[in-house]
Amino acid sequence: MMHYRKAQNVEQELSKADLPFEDCLPKSPNDFLWMHVKGGTKVSNVIEFAQAALNKNEHRCVVWSGSGGGVGKTISCAEVLKRSHPLYQVTRMAYTSVEEHWKPQMDGLEEIIATRQIPTLHILMSLDALPDSIEGLQKPNTATDFWEGNETHRNSHPRQQQQQHHQPSTAGSQQKKRHRSGRTKPAQQQVKQVAEENEPSSHGQG
To answer: What is the pTM of this model?
Structure first.
């Protein structure tokens, strides 16, 4: 490819018929809000727009879609929206076609167009209850194993988190042993450090 230069990527334009939710989408395409998330999307703006649509009852269902650099933000949008509304959720993956255009830098060569498939994440969220028979259904206020979310894991185990915060530290006894051998800081600084370590942490709250 030394005689070619990269020109542009043309991503397949999806339609609502391409969404992988044949078993759970509303019958009318106008009955749900479809939010496209890209790498440069400002999360706060699209979240406010979706929340307003649900609050005004303009839509009862929202679908988030993102590929490439937008996948992470797609997940963030869904997680934030769940905090303000009791939503049923279905998460699925699909593929989108992308054409890579390569322009020749020498006479006599033709343009090359390479097509590849990139994974695309789609998250359907509904205020209305969805049937239990739907594959991958996640009900409101429950966790999903579709991806590993550290934040979801921490929020779903508050008792365990509280026990960890109040668990006595063994750092004091270990530091005393080291102090006897003359390798630790003065005792006054040591007591201050142990007190700070035993102080309950606020991590995970918010």
So the answer is: 0.65
